[in-house]
């Protein structure tokens, strides 16, 4: 296991004390064997899996592991090309065409804060604003987890460990569908969201830290409160990124769960709330309880 910083070690200690809220057991409703729901954080260290009691046994015991998508497909050359193409803006809507000079300058200042003095907004000219927002969000989150290794992304590690055990790997949505969610919508609304992030940089950074702490503490209520913060997420964005996807995933799971024991590993933000997976599964008649 890689050496981790003192701050991360303290977070892991907190996580080990109250970890149960990110790992849930699904039974009832005629299931012959239990399935499990694991909330992930896309920039958290893979090392936390080794601090999650019972995780190895659960992984060994299930038949299948499903994530938001199949990570090996997303990381393949064809998958990377597909995502790159989806992130490209139309020729008449590149960054300098949808942001004025003052906005470009403000964006450059923010980018330099995270990526160094040589970076400018012009370097991101061909990309959709939503892709630039994603880059900034990842950079902010990595300030909380400075040792993050993209090659050991948590969702990918879960699927890789499962594949090594001979488990079937599946996705609740395709890469095309995820790209449509992340980079869809009007360019104008994407640009507005990007500049909201620039104007509220410190607030966003503070919330990224709070979200990381909430996740490592297994506190789904705190995660939900951050997700529902109107400064961070509009109703339209929450509906597109979380609620509609949860409803679509429930249809997949309703067909899948009766057929096999499954570990479902998706972003922890998809678990809490009335429209979260825990509540939706319970409404379908399943018993969902903390491990």
Describe the overall structure.
The chain is α/β, with parallel strands linked by helices. The protein is 53% helix and 10% strand. It has 14 helices and 6 strands. It has a 6-stranded mixed beta sheet with strand order 4-3-5-2-1-6, sandwiched between helices. A hairpin with a 7-residue loop joins strand 1 and strand 2. Helix 7 runs parallel beside helix 10 and helix 7 packs across helix 11. The protein is elongated. The two termini are 25 Å apart. The relative contact order is 0.21. The N terminus is likely disordered.
Which helices and strands appear, and what pairs or packs with what?
Layout lengths: L5 H12 L5 E5 L7 E6 L14 H7 L2 E4 L3 H5 L1 H10 L8 H4 L2 H15 L13 H16 L9 H11 L3 E4 L3 H9 L3 H13 L1 H16 L3 H8 L7 H22 L5 E6 L9 H7 L3 E4 L1
Parallel strand pairs: 2-5, 3-4, 3-5
Antiparallel strand pairs: 1-2, 1-6
Q: What attributes does this structure have?
A:
291 residues, alpha/beta, disordered N terminus, 14 helices, 53% helix
Sheet having the most strands:
6 strands, mixed
- Report the strand count: 6
N-to-C SSE string, H for helix and E for strand: HEEHEHHHHHHEHHHHHEHE
Q: Can you give the mean pLDDT?
A: 89
Strand order of the largest sheet: 4-3-5-2-1-6
Number of helices: 14
The amount of beta strand, in percent, is 5-15%
Tell the overall outline: elongated
Uncertain regions: pLDDT < 50 for 5+ in a row?
Answer: 1-20
Q: What would you call the structural class?
A: alpha/beta
Helix content: 40-55%
What is the gyration radius calculated from CA atoms? Answer: 19 Å
Distance between the termini: 25 Å
